[in-house]
Amino acid sequence: MRKFVPIIIAIAGAIFADAAHGQAIVLKDGITKLGPDQFKVEGGKVMKIVKVGGNVATSELQLSSVLRLEWPEPEELTQGKALLASGKTSEALDLLKKGRDFFQPFKDVPGNHFVNLSFAYVEALGAAGKFEETVKAMPALRLLKLSEEQKTQLKILQLNVDRQTSSDYSNIIAQAQNILSETDDSAVGASLWMIQGDVYFKQKKWEQALFAYLRVPVFYGTQVQRVPEAELNSARTLAKMRRFEDAASYYKRIIDSYPGSTIAETAKTEEVSVHGLKNEDESPAKAGEKKDGEAKSDEAKPADAKPADAPAVEAAK
Which of 96, 172, 285, 291 shows a CA-CA span of 20 to 30 A to 90? Predict the structure, then answer.
């Protein structure tokens, strides 16, 4: 699936080149439509573009005169998710922010995509490890008009914050399991298993963390934007379990699967610390109990980093 990501991006670009013809602001007379070349968003305002001969003039469009937007799912959202799926988090953040800023003036206009782009952007902030920015963005999400599905998304985002700030691990796991029992949505499931993996990782419950992380590529592979982070965290967990050969294999897979991405560069750096080391014949439980001073090959531990989600190692190999 991963090797098809560049193809997905290319196809998405072609689709939205055609879809651009269907993008328009519909005014309240129900007849007048402004296409993408007849307006622009500038400084948080919508500016109408009027061409007279060779001259171009702009004037602010009053949003009270707008009936709705006729706008297919924006390219920024589709390609932003595709970039996350290829491990290119920084590029995804830039594109999602661009889309969110474009639709911000239209947030109360039917047919806008501001809410979906806002959620995707905050999720990408979390994937990029930008915790403080994620926390700052949360209050604005709560003020939006949310569907039931988006309210569930908000709960998940809050859980993701809680798992980084709270030590009440059992409550976080219980909430995640409760939401899982109420939905079969794959996006929700992938997010919740990532959160559980992170909590178990913080508790040094390596086997449970690995099981949680691996659920994403094994059972939620359609959520391609989640897979790179889940695989990276699986590699980190294997290293903590002192399964160094397995960890090195996972790091190599990430490097080969997501060339040129931030995640691939991170994997290259962390793979050095386990390169050439053999798996140690030790149970995960005992490995987790070892203190740092007692552990062999401390230099083999990858740099501290935030984890993600998934199920059994052998199934994902």
Answer: 172
